[in-house]
Write a structure and sequence with these properties.
By secondary structure, the protein is an alpha/beta fold. The chain has six helices and eight strands, in the order αββαβαβαβαβββα. Helix content is 34%, strand content 17%.
Length: 189
């Protein structure tokens, strides 16, 4: 018997459709998984991603710089699955995420591999380290502002070479012709 969705989930699905977006597929099925959010060109990507994932009564945790966790915004962000991070030490940030994932039975993490909302040619590999350390499955997720389609995408298999996998990942997105809300903020290669 299928579980009935909460009011919050139904509202998020309704609002996403009302905003003109189409959901492609469902949530990640594995207990530990990472969805890559590409292209990340605006803070509005968070809203679309949140509505998409919450409509399934699921939480996709995201990293937000700790400076945003002031009253009253901090408690609101935490209620959405946001995790405060100290970006001054990337190694500490990644290690704390790994620890957080390891202590939870189910943990879905959303990461923008670009590492910024600005156009960048060299994507970060932190997602790779987190996935390898925790055994999390990686999905090539996307939000396409041009066609207003959002989804977790397909499983993206990893090797032991983080840089080569990330280059391959960028090439994977290229033929998708995704458009960010900020049209100049996305470079695949």
């Amino acid at each position: 018997m299928e579980k009935k969705l909460s009011r919050k989930a139904r509202f998020c699905g309704w609002l996403l459709k009302k905003l003109g977006w189409t959901s492609v597929g469902g949530p990640m099925k594995e207990k530990k998984a990472i969805v890559l959010g590409v292209p990340h060109t605006t803070v509005w990507d968070f809203l679309i991603s949140y509505l998409f994932y919450t409509q399934f009564d699921k939480t996709a945790h995201i990293m937000i710089k700790k400076e945003f966790f002031f009253w009253p915004l901090g408690p609101i962000l935490k209620s959405t699955g946001a995790i405060p991070v100290d970006r001054s030490s990337p190694a500490t940030m990644v290690r704390s995420l790994i620890t957080e994932m390891e202590k939870c039975d189910e943990f879905h993490l959303a990461i923008a591999p670009e590492g910024t909302r600005k156009a960048t040619k060299r994507w970060k590999t932190g997602y790779h380290l987190i996935a390898k350390e925790t055994g999390a499955t990686v999905y090539a997720g996307y939000f396409d502002w041009g066609r207003k389609r959002v989804g977790c995408g397909e499983v993206f298999p990893l090797t032991d070479d983080a840089r080569a996998d990330t280059d391959r990942l960028q090439a994977h997105y290229e033929p998708m012709h995704l458009q960010g809300k900020n049209k100049n903020g996305f470079i695949t290669h």
